[in-house]
Amino acid sequence: MVSGTTVAQSSTNLFTNVSAIRASSTSITVSAEPPAGQLISPIIAAITTDDGNTWRLQTVTQHIGSARWSRTFSGLDTETCYGFRVRWSNDGFSDEVYASTGTVSPPSALTGLTSTADGETAINLLWTAPTTDKCGQITGYKFEVSTDGGSTFSDLVASHGMTTYSHTGLSGGDTRQYRVSAINSGDTGAVSSVANATTDGTATTIPGAPTSLTATADGQTTINLSWTAPTSNGGAAISSYRILVSVDGTSFTELVASHTSTSYSHTGLAPVTTRLL
């Protein structure tokens, strides 16, 4: 009779902090932190060249001690993306890591960029990531924004890790144009097509000047002011008026910072006082 016992995979016996770095056009160096307490054991590497669909196993070395393990895999194909994971002979594999023997190309342009108003103060962006092999995995996205119809763009976010983004802090009726680029270890990729959106509400500008201002003496100590609200309110209701006063017609000082009606009485004046408002 022959008996045997299966070996359970333990998360405490896994290699951690695994890295893969291109060493030359035909070699890649893989290193990892061994699990604590392992002094001597053969190490098995799994290697893939098809983004992890199939793996081949290779016993690569024995490891003595607890220092970081490292191995350079030589004789590899040029301009090829390789994936690696490692384990002790009877334990589970580490996380996958990828490196290329060639130059990693920047990502292609992402697709499906849309921009949608979210109320009066935000525009939400959504897009589809470009397809890459695992050596060219996307590490972030760069956003650019335009306020002049797409003639010029400036950076909005240098690097963002998700395929959605909300541009907040806008005002009602604001129109913005956006374009987005994917980033990987090769560089920043091509820009997407431009997406355009306008926040809800009405864009506001500075109101026009009030008209028909009159100043009329009311006895010895008061001057009454009256005026007509401006024809253009800038897209929002007039909330108040600021009143300035001058004794010489050249320099003006603030008399009232905020007054809500279209008339005002300047009181407390001395007899035969002239004021320009």
Structural notes for this entry:
This protein is mostly beta strands and 277 residues long. The chain is built from no helices and 20 strands. The chain has strands at residues 16-24, 27-33, 40-48, 56-64, 69-73, 81-88, 97-100, 111-117, 123-128, 140-146, 154-160, 164-167, 175-183, 188-191, 195-198, 211-217, 223-228, 241-245, 253-259, 263-266. The strands form 6 sheets. Strands 10, 11, 13, 14 and 15 form a 5-stranded antiparallel beta sheet that branches. A 4-stranded antiparallel beta sheet has the order 4-3-6-7, with no helix packed on it. A hairpin with a 7-residue loop joins β18 (241-245) and β19 (253-259). It is elongated, with a radius of gyration of 35 Å. Mean pLDDT is 87; it is low at 1-10.
Question: How would you summarize the topology of this molecule?
Answer:
Layout: E1 16-24, E2 27-33, E3 40-48, E4 56-64, E5 69-73, E6 81-88, E7 97-100, E8 111-117, E9 123-128, E10 140-146, E11 154-160, E12 164-167, E13 175-183, E14 188-191, E15 195-198, E16 211-217, E17 223-228, E18 241-245, E19 253-259, E20 263-266
Antiparallel strand pairs: 1-2, 2-5, 3-4, 3-6, 6-7, 8-9, 9-12, 10-11, 10-13, 13-14, 13-15, 16-17, 17-20, 18-19
